[in-house]
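To illustrate the input format used throughout this study, we show a single complete record. The first block contains the structure-token representation of the backbone; no residue identities are included at this stage. The design step must infer an amino acid for every position from geometry alone.
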């Protein structure tokens, strides 16, 4: 069965046959550990606070980060069941069912899961434990975090994070609870809490911190201290699970390229200006030797299969191979001058080499240390990314992304087949910083691609003729992209877990779905307010409130009018009552980036336009509905960020002329 996250993009995939064959169970009471047993399979649900200071196991605290964990075992043998693909959501109970053990009739839970898997705009979960988020590193010293709702023709802005300077590179720690971001121009390193999407601290680890690398065992994050002509130039070593500089290691001048042995025993740092390769003992965090190189190193890669480090220079036509165990030069591989990147495909045998100035892609065999295939790719191939069975090649001079099946790589002497898809209207241009601008999407044969000129991102899934999703970056130029997988992952045999920020206090059901063996169950979950005294939990939320008696007719220009209102973040906006929110005196003017997005359910058509301020302080939006149907209207403003309620501010049904219906 495909992962349920496909439903975010493919609204028609409802998996109805699997769901209707399942029988739901009533929700258990909120306890530290809930368990259900079905057909010899036990599923245990627990909540583990990310920050132990906020509560004990089983305590669900509003707006705090929590580990959502399901443990799945065979009841006969007691053995964990591995390699499963569970899905889960958090759904708030209705007021009339707050004190019940569950508010789902025998088939209503099945129907609920069917809607959630289908990405229905009518049935959105309060928290989705199967989704992923897309982050962009922007040209205006910010990070955009969005929930990619491609199925509905747009995105939900989760956060706009200001940085101390334009981001240079970034990396998650192993649990993705922290995001490290360097801003070389300001000598800063920002540490971002991914539960709250805020900068938790800002450090100055060294002068000109740039490249960031997480070592394979995820114990340390290594920082390239790129200041030239500095007697202390080298790397800074940081603890990955806390924002703390452990030590500084002097290696050499210039920019530094960092790689590790597979067991994290050795770190290799190529020093551009000094033309050396430093070998560091990670256990003692001491440099043990320097190897002299023939030219300025401009890149480094490691293959676990050959246990070798590959160092190259853009000015030389060969690759230096260093044995990681002996730390000696083992070979020089003839290649081409102008190499930009070597990246090893899954399995670590074949390295894909881009040479943009020569319009070439080479295949390096790490077993024989030879170039065994090559392909001519026009428009300057520069960066390579991989899915489970495809290599994607980004080109500077084109908006087309090349695609090479991994099964075709390694066939010595044979040509490499190349397909492509178009990722935007403008050529990508050269990479503007160290971070990747094309990355794999989790769990799928798919990638997310940034196009700086378009100020947009594109989601492409293998087998499609074109990207199946696109979203703009709220007017910002995306220089790099990261994907944060929020879906349930197997962290231990039979243990499936994710980390999520919980919603407002209330009584919820944690809905669990497993296709094989087929299990649907609702675990009762009580989310409480924070016990920390005097803690500010929420601030006012700005919302747009539609004025009454508005109609829309297909093919005719519609003019809709709204006013600003405010409410607490825990309350939902009303789409029917203009008096549900009071006027917000804190917003005397309309934010310049305020837009309204009209979506024709179920997401087959959408339009976004700026809003116009009227003399009475209200705002207006004009659009032409293309056909009859149900239209949802969403307000968006990066300037307001989380303070702008993202719920629909109006739902209208468009009917043929003379058959108009009032707002729903």
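Output of the design step:
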């Amino acid at each position: 069965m495909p992962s349920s996250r496909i439903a975010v993009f493919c609204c028609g995939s409802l998996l109805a046959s699997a769901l209707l064959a399942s029988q739901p169970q009533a929700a258990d009471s909120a306890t530290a550990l809930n368990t259900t047993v079905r057909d010899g399979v036990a599923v245990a649900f627990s909540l583990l606070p990310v920050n132990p200071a906020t509560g004990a196991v089983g305590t669900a605290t509003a707006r705090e980060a929590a580990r959502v964990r399901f443990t799945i075992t065979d009841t006969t043998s007691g053995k964990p069941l591995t390699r499963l693909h569970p899905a889960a959501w958090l759904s708030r109970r209705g007021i009339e069912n707050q004190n019940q053990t569950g508010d789902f009739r025998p088939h209503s839970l099945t129907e609920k899961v069917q809607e959630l898997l289908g990405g229905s705009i009518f049935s959105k979960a309060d928290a989705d434990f199967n989704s992923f988020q897309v982050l962009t590193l922007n040209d205006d010293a910010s990070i955009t975090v969005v929930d990619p709702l491609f199925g509905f023709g747009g995105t939900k802005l989760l956060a706009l994070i200001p940085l101390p300077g334009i981001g240079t590179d970034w990396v998650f720690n192993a649990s993705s609870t922290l995001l490290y971001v360097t801003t070389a121009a300001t000598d800063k390193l920002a540490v971002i809490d991914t539960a709250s999407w805020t900068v938790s601290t800002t450090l100055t680890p060294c002068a000109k911190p740039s490249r960031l690398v997480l070592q394979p065992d995820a114990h340390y994050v290594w920082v390239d201290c790129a200041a030239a002509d500095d007697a202390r130039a080298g790397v800074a070593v940081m603890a990955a699970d806390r924002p703390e500089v452990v030590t500084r290691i002097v290696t050499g001048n210039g920019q530094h390229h960092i790689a590790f042995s597979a067991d994290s025993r050795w770190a290799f740092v190529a020093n551009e200006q000094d033309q050396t390769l430093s070998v560091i003992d990670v256990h003692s965090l001491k440099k043990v030797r320097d190897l002299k190189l023939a030219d300025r190193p401009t890149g480094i890669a490691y293959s676990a299969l050959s246990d070798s480090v590959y160092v190259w220079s853009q000015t030389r036509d060969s690759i230096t191979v260093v044995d990681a165990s002996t730390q000696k030069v083992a070979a020089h591989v003839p290649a081409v001058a102008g190499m930009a990147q070597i990246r090893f495909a899954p399995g670590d045998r074949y390295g894909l080499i881009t040479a943009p100035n020569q319009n070439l892609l080479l295949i390096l065999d790490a077993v024989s240390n030879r170039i065994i295939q090559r392909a001519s790719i026009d428009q300057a191939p520069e960066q390579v990314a991989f899915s489970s069975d495809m290599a994607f090649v980004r080109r500077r001079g084109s908006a087309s992304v090349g695609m090479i099946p991994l099964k075709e790589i390694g066939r010595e002497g044979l040509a490499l087949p190349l397909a492509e898809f178009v990722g935007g209207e403008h050529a990508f241009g050269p990479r503007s910083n160290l971070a990747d601008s094309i990355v794999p999407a989790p769990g799928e044969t798919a990638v997310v691609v940034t196009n700086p000129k378009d100020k947009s991102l594109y989601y492409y899934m293998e087998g499609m003729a074109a990207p199946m999703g696109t979203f703009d970056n709220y007017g910002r130029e995306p220089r790099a992209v990261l994907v944060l997988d929020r879906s349930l992952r197997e962290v231990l045999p039979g243990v499936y877990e994710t980390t999520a920020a919980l919603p407002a206090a209330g009584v919820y059901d944690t809905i669990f779905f497993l296709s094989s063996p087929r299990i649907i169950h609702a675990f009762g979950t009580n989310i409480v307010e924070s016990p920390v005294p005097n803690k500010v939990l929420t601030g006012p939320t700005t919302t747009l409130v539609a004025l009454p008696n508005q109609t829309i007719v297909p093919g005719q220009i519609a003019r809709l009018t709204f006013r600003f209102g405010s409410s607490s973040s825990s309350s939902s906006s009303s789409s029917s009552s203009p008096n549900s929110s009071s006027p917000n005196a804190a917003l005397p003017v309309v934010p310049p980036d305020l837009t309204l997005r009209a979506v024709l359910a179920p997401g087959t058509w959408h339009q976004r336009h700026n809003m116009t301020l009227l003399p009475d302080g209200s705002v207006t939006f004009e659009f032409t509905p293309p056909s009859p149907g149900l239209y949802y209207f969403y307000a968006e403003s990066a300037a307001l960020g989380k303070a702008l309620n993202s719920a629909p501010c109006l739902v209208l049904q468009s009917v043929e002329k003379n058959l108009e219906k009032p707002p729903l």
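Structural context for interpreting the output: The CA atoms of residues 247 and 553 lie 67 Å apart. The mean pLDDT is 82.
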